Amino acid sequence: MFQPFTEEPIRLIDEKGNWIGDFELDLSEDALLTLYRNMVAGRLLDERYIVLLRTGKTSFVAPAAGHEAAQVGMAAAIRPGFDWVFPYYRDKTLLLSLGYPAEQLFAQMAGTVLDPNKGRQMPEHPGHKDLNVFTVASPIASHVVPAVGAALSMKFQGTGQVVLTTFGDGATSEGDWHAGLNFAGVQGAPIVFAAENNRYAISVDFSKQSASARIADKAHAYGMPGYVVDGMDVLASYYVMREAVSRAREGLGPALVELLVYRYGPHSSADDDSVYRPKEEVEAWKKKDPITRFERFLEKRKLWTPEFGEQVRDEERKKLEAAEEKALSAQAVPPEWMFDDVYAERPWHLEEQKRILLEEL
Amino acid sequence: MATMTIVQAVKRALDEEMARDERVVVLGEDVGKRGGVFLATEGLYQKYGPDRVIDTPLSEAAIIGAAVGMAVHGLRPVAEIQFADYVFPGFDQLVSQAAKIRYRSGGQFQAPMVVRMPSGGGVKGGHHHSQSPETHFAHTAGLKVVVPSTPYDALGLLKTAIRDDDPVVFMEPKRLYRSIKEEVPDEEYTLPFGEAAIRRAGSDLTMITYGGPTVESLKAAEELEKVGVQAEVIDLRTLVPWDKETVLNSVAKTGRALVIAEAPRMASFASEVAATIAEELLDQLLAPPIRVTGFDTPYPYIPDRLYMPTVTRILNAAKKALEY
Q: Is position B189 within any domain?
């Protein structure tokens, strides 16, 4: 049982890789290595997206390096394809860890027909019905209330499912965020709110975002526990999320989990972070890298060597390269798809407008 | 045949659909124990319980946003916004989530939901209890917009809205809630979207209207008959989709069109209809299409009735069209 509202973030691995939890680690070696592999794959995916951008294959990237431990930990805490996830736009490692096929993620980035969302949205906005991953929307925190609605549906129908919804620190200033937490608290909805607090909403640092010491503190107001976690510690992220998810599943209501992370890159490919944060700060955080820290942990348990790390990276890189090749060689989304899925059936005014487009093609 | 008002028709539609399909839930402020401030959900809480008739916190974003999530997860929520004027805190949920989830997910997810709201003036409520904001919704791809003007239509169209797989904004002209009584069949029925009703046949002039001003349009048509002018009155009933065919057929016959609506004129649905008539029927028109609408002012408390298209204003416009 973790204590909510702690002053210091909950941490289970120290920076030297030592286990400092006050309970017995109950994960198998395979499970530990899966966490590691998922973090490595997420980091590599992030790097490939930036290559896609530089080679003109995509138009936008939201770098997520530094968020891997938080995202891999939360993915491991839910049941993929059974529970529902309402993510935000910086969750590629979360989605990959849930089993979102990499070629479909790449297809979303490039707008090819392999994207189950049919290329309707800008890059970094995936979604997948088979995995119960609600398609990402850009307006910040606008997915938080629908996430609560889905959780209420689960509660009223007694399905045993849980909702996980994620967002950045900036989202906690939006009215919809508060509306969502309030409604979830009132109804005891089975949902976990996960804040990936990387300290910057584009350029605005957390001190300008909120006068609360912690995002987790805001949970007090909504009658739910708030946990603050070292989000660069994959085991702390996993175990706290696991507890929050099982509370929700047991009918004990929602929780807010604040995962302290740091994004190494700019907010997006359209951002220049050098104007609002010093390079030294970024470098200092990179020294706390979640993957390196977990490697030290695994090494102490004789589960990791530099050669093994290289092998994992090679294997994951090859998988991603194959997925990327498949996604990018697929056909681009045809323009006449523009008029599908506006409504269940196309009304006359869209038929008329489709004809106008077809005349032009 | 039972005689009922619009608000009773709404209640009956909700009750029938909740009895028919257990996925149908109702949520909103005061919809539970109180039965809604207009009593449109009266008795449903007692009949179906708190998990299907949900009293929500006072937050339109929470009401509409939660309805989106319930809908994508498989329920058929019917959200009530207490007055259409209060939809705006939930507007982003309608525009960014409800209207777009089918499209942005490539058809993977859908949001079959209804957002009911009493709209329009005539109840001495000032601008925050009287507006007709349908243009915002009609302007948003992915939403359907329904505005009934009779008990029979309110019942049949609300049932269709609840069964529809797309998000439907269902606007109930509140000044007609209890002022019109009509016989409604006892057996179940639904009415299709996109089919206007010809409320009165005529050969000299077409009035195209919907919602509250249907009443004033019919009164104006009676006045015109006294001076030998036969006006056809078309009640659109649904704005998205709207029944262009019935409108154009009528105007092709009469050569004159008044488009009558309570919402302000600027960039309005009335303007869309008038522009379509001009674009498609120019050579058959005897006069330009004329809009008779609410003014481009906030809705005033005093003079409440003069904001809306009055019979006099409709007759003035008819005179202009007839003498053109």
A: no
Convert the pLDDT of each residue in B86-127 to its tens digit.
Answer: 999 999 999 999 999 999 999 999 999 999 999 999 999 999
Binary contact (A176, B51; C-beta < 8 A): no
A118 touches chain B (CB under 8 A): yes
Catalytic residues of A: 263, 267, 276
Q: Are residues B98 and B205 in the same domain?
A: no
Residues of chain B with C-beta less than 8 angstroms from the C-beta of A340: 107
Report H helices in chain B.
Answer: 6-20, 44-48, 60-72, 91-92, 101-104, 134-138, 151-163, 214-226, 244-254, 269-281, 304-307, 311-323
User: Chain A: nearest CA to B140, how far in angstroms?
Assistant: 10
B246 falls within a domain = yes
Task: Establish if B190 belongs to a structural domain.
Answer: no
Domain count, chain B: 2
Q: What percent of chain A lies above the pLDDT cut of 90? A: 99
How many Cβ contacts (< 8 angstroms) between chains A and B? 152
| Cβ-Cβ contacts under 8 Å, B105 against chain A | 116-117, 120, 127, 129, 134-135, 341
Q: Which residues of A touch B65 (CB under 8 A)?
A: 142, 144-146, 148-149, 176, 179-180
Which domain covers residue B39, as residue numbers?
Answer: 2-184
Interface membership of A315 toward B (CB under 8 Å)? no
Give catalytic residues of B, as residue numbers.
129
Q: Is the pLDDT of residue A165 over 90?
A: yes
CATH code, domain with B134: 3.40.50.970
- A29-330 folds as Rossmann fold (3.40.50)
Per-residue pLDDT band at B1 (split at 50, 70, 90): confident
Across the interface, of A153, A176, A186, the residue whose CB is closest to B57 is: A186
Q: Where are the domains of chain A?
A: 29-330, 335-361
Q: Are residues B153 and B202 in the same domain?
A: no
CATH number assigned to the domain comprising residue B207:
3.40.50.920
